[in-house]
TrEMBL record:
Gene3D superfamilies: IHF-like DNA-binding proteins. The gene is hup_2. It comes from Emticicia aquatica. Keywords: DNA condensation, DNA-binding. This is DNA-binding protein HU. The keyword DNA-binding applies. GO terms for molecular function: DNA binding.
């Protein structure tokens, strides 16, 4: 499902026009990105958590050049679904 399809589905379900739904959805995405960029997490009860996952520094190899480089420690965004969300998916996909 694409973002456009999500917007249409929400607009059909709620009766709100597509432009308002699109603005709201884009604002939500911007808030999640900004919050994660500042090192905080976003918790949506019953849905899941958007969190930063810390990756330690490590050695990586470039096989074609036969060299080793150090990849510095960094954070990557991650999503951890809530228990209710996980259970719903498990029950529906059988």
């Amino acid at each position: 499902m694409t973002k456009a399809e999500v917007i249409v589905a929400i607009a059909d379900k709620t009766g709100v026009d597509k432009a308002s739904v699109s603005t709201t959805l884009e604002s939500f995405f911007d808030i999640v990105k900004d919050t994660l960029a500042h090192g905080d997490a976003v918790y949506v009860r019953g849905f899941g958590s958007f969190v930063n996952k810390h990756r330690a520094a490590k050695k990586a190899r470039n096989i074609s050049a036969k060299t080793t480089v150090m990849v510095p420690a960094h954070s990557v965004p991650g999503f951890k679904p809530a228990k209710e969300f996980t259970e719903q998916v498990k029950e529906s996909v059988k």
